[in-house]
Amino acid sequence: MLTHAPKRRYLARFDAKRVPHMFADVLVIGAGIAGVRAALEIDPRLRVIVVSKDRIELSNSAWAQGGIAGVLDPEDAISNHADDTMVAGAGMCDKAVVDAVVEAAPDLIRELMEYGAQFDKVDGRIALTREGGHSHRRIAHALGDATGKEVMRALIDSVRGEAMGREPSTLDIWEETFTIDLLTHDDTCRGAIVWNPDHGKTFIWAKQAILCTGGAGRLYRETTNPDIATADGHAIAFRAGAELRDMEMMQFHPTVLYIAGSSRHLISEAVRGEGAYLVDATGDRFMEDYDERLELAPRDIVSRAITKQMNKTRQPCVYLDLRHLPPTLVNERFPHIKQVCREFGLDLPQDLIPVRPGAHYMIGGVTIDSDGRTTLPGLWAAGEVTSSGLHGANRLASNSLLEGLFHGR
Fold first, then answer.
1. Residue 32's pLDDT is what?
2. What is the model's pLDDT at position 133?
3. CA distances (Å), origin 261, targets 68, 195, 285
4. What is the dihedral angle through the alpha carbons of 199, 205, 211, 212, rounded to the nearest 10 degrees?
5. CA 321, CA 323: separation in Å to the nearest integer?
């Protein structure tokens, strides 16, 4: 557990008399699912500034493929979702947090629909799939395999509409704005110093700040994360004196498209949820040697199994085999993944797809309580930048967007 700020308090030098000053009631740092959902919940009478490191559409949340987990099937139960989360977390989850989040999940999914998100449906009902570690089909998805893109479209449209609809406008969105550090005084967060190409360094003084800066995958060579996921939020919180915990816990996704020399692309867990096999270079379906749940074991187990099999066969990857699945199912469920594979000369329904593990989700982070409070007064946090107790030692598939929505709200 990290609790002591380093001797060098601020990352960059500044002269407070030469830097512009802005004032807000609430500063939201980060514009992924947690940050945007938080902004939508804030009292419209308050002055709010949302800061996004890149364009608001380019958050890690928008890259999410699989979906959002929630009990929407009458044959499923909240207790099942909670049990699956606890098992995947290897005994390190906070049960009270798990119970609260999974109980809220169905309402959070329905709320997204009210914001305009269009989930895939079958016979008029939300279509549900299954992923690793889940005992039932409970993953709601959109655009086949581009759930994050659709969910973020709906939320971004809503927050932009909120910003335009306020008279006078009390909600501003600052895109392409890098947060250099949190501002503190008397051991309390007072806002942040940011940099924008249009006006350089700027002080944003805020009565409350909400940290929603996402993950850290780009610290690793093999990762599914976009370029912006570089642990900025973890670093600024640490320098400001907030407590961080479980920073050794990075989840590796088992199936990242492996093309030597190219960028990495996630192959959704839902591919295995629909029945794809994992085979090694010899054609052996090896997961039965490691876990009775086969390809649908939790991510940490499948990632370790793949790594061991790669070492055993002395090969740089293993393969996803979808050849036994109906091509129409594959094409309809995974249009984005099919297009990515096609760019590398691979036919998703017919070819073996080379995959290997890659850094995917930062489980450790800024310690928060059940309401999202950090240990630094004036600073709140939500989403992947946090350690909330939901994930334990390993996140259950499709609980990430869920967590961002829950603590963001």
1. 93
2. 86
3. 32, 33, 27
4. -40
5. 6
DSSP code for 230: S
0.85 exceeded by the pTM? yes
Short-list 292, 207, 199, 230, CA closest to 60: 230
Question: 78-88 vs 95-114: helix axis angle to the nearest 10?
Answer: 120
Q: Helix crossing, 33-41 with 400-408: angle to 10°? A: 20
| Residue 160 bears catalytic tag | no
Mean pLDDT by 10 residues, the chain (409 residues): 66 86 97 95 94 87 83 96 95 96 96 94 90 90 86 91 72 94 96 93 97 94 89 96 95 91 82 92 94 90 95 95 92 88 91 94 95 97 97 93 95
Q: Are 302 and 287 in contact (CB under 8 A)?
A: yes
What is the C-alpha to C-alpha distance for residues 28 and 191, in angstroms, rounded to an integer?
10
Rounded CA-CA distance 212/189 in Å is 15
Q: Name the active-site residue from 138, 190, 299, 356.
A: 299
> The tokens of 142 are what?
């959109």
How high is the pLDDT of residue 379?
Answer: 98
Kindly report the backbone phi and psi dihedral angles of residue 174, in degrees, each rounded to the nearest multiple of 5, phi listed first.
-100, 105
d(CA 30, CA 36): 8
Query: Is-contact 117 150, C-beta < 8 A?
Result: yes
**121-to-73, 118, 333, 386 alpha-carbon distances in Å:** 13, 9, 12, 32
CA 46/CA 374 separation, integer angstroms: 21
Q: Please return the burial class of 11, using the count of CB atoms within 10 Å of its CB with bins 0-12, 13-18 and 19+.
A: middle
Question: In this predicted structure, what is the pLDDT of residue 169?
Answer: 73
